[in-house]
Amino acid sequence: MSFLSGFIAIIGPPNSGKSTLLNRLLGRKIAITSPKPQTTRNRILGIYNGDGFQMVFMDTPGIHPTRSLLHKSMVRSAKASLEEVDIILLVVGLEEVTHRDELKSIVRLVKKTPKPAVLAINKVDLIRKENLLPMIESYSKLNCFDCIIPLSALYGDGVEVLGEELKKRLSTGPQFFPPDMVTDKPEDFLIAEIIREKIYYATREELPYASAVVVENLEEDKKRDLLIVRAVICVEKASQKGIIIGKQGTLIKKIGRDARVEIEKMFSVKVYLELFVKVERNWSSDARSLRKLGY
Ligand SMILES: Nc1nc2c(ncn2[C@@H]2O[C@H](COP(=O)(O)OP(=O)(O)OP(=O)(O)O)[C@@H](O)[C@H]2O)c(=O)[nH]1
Ligand SMILES: [Mg+2]
After folding, report:
1. Which of 20, 91, 127 to mutate for ligand 1's pocket (most ligand atoms within 8 Å of CB)?
2. What structural domains and CATH numbers belong to the chain?
3. 217 - beta bridge partners?
4. Is the C-beta atom of 60 inside 6 A of ligand 1?
5. For residue 107, how many other CB atoms are within 10 A of its CB?
6. Residue-wise over 242-259: b if at least 16 C-beta within 10 A, else e?
7. How far, in Å, CA of 189 to CA of 215, rounded?
8. Per-residue pLDDT of the chain (295 residues; tens, 9 = 90+)
9. 28: which residues sit within 8 A by CB, 6+ positions away?
């Protein structure tokens, strides 16, 4: 039998559980997640290798109406992903309703492409069965999806069914990536993202959105079997720097500790993590700063 493969874009509104679903499909965490919308800022490939097939998932930032330069670039990259893939996987949460403008515009985008589109209604662990059926019905009335699958990315129910449905839609094609490759992103990106995730959990209000993380140095100390990481957290104002550092450095210590534990787990190595905070004035609305920070 010939080898099957395909690129699959995971798109949807912010916070619907796209990155959680990617991690669940792969069986390991490569994309950060958080209860706050606009967590994912870059497209991330996640590669799944099965017996005789390869699925290349593309996690994308949530699509939403926006004005800020950073968010515009995020939404642009999510929309562009539709052009580059073979299959579309739209992920919606329970808060989405078919008549809301935001969702309507995403559905319009999906309808415009002739590619197979699968809808995942996520977070069904939070809803009663009798409320789910009308929801599925209203989505199927849109005449947009090849199939609709209710699931829970967080707990795993329905995810295997989704995997099977996606597999059915692969075509004969090459193995795009070597079988031991899980993502297209380099180590320093994954580490910066883990630190950013900890900031999303540790801070409130505008702080997560005003923060960007860059790994400036990554060094392996083979003798001590240690990975030495030096990373900078960029914020937009001096007052935000104070908040992130916290009283006597308590907050930055917590962010550093939580990140270190997870980096150690991800790479199975002891980590020494040095964190610095820098003010990069209004980076999220400055094209040059955005480029420098990888957006
Ligand atoms: N109860 C429940 N929560 C979920 C499920 N899937 C995701 N979540 C939660 O929903 C929140 C958002 O998840 P993410 O995976 O970050 O969502 P996203 O769509 O990638 O969000 P953006 O990157 O901001 O667009 C997190 O708090 C997840 O834990 C689910 O199946 N059930
Ligand atoms: Mg995400």
Report:
1. 20
2. 4-172 (3.40.50.300), 187-292 (3.30.300.20)
3. 230
4. no
5. 20
6. ebbbeeeeebbeebbebb
7. 7
8. 799 999 999 999 999 999 999 999 999 999 999 999 999 999 999 999 999 999 999 999 999 998 899 999 999 999 999 999 999 999 999 988 888 888 999 999 999 999 999 999 999 999 998 999 999 999 999 999 999 999 999 999 999 999 999 999 999 999 999 999 999 999 999 999 999 999 999 999 999 999 999 999 999 999 999 999 999 999 999 999 999 999 999 999 999 999 999 999 999 999 999 999 999 999 999 999 999 999 9
9. 182
Sign of the CA dihedral running 47, 106, 166, 123: positive
Q: Looking at the CA of 29, name the nearest ligand.
A: 1
Provide the token pair at 137. 């019905």
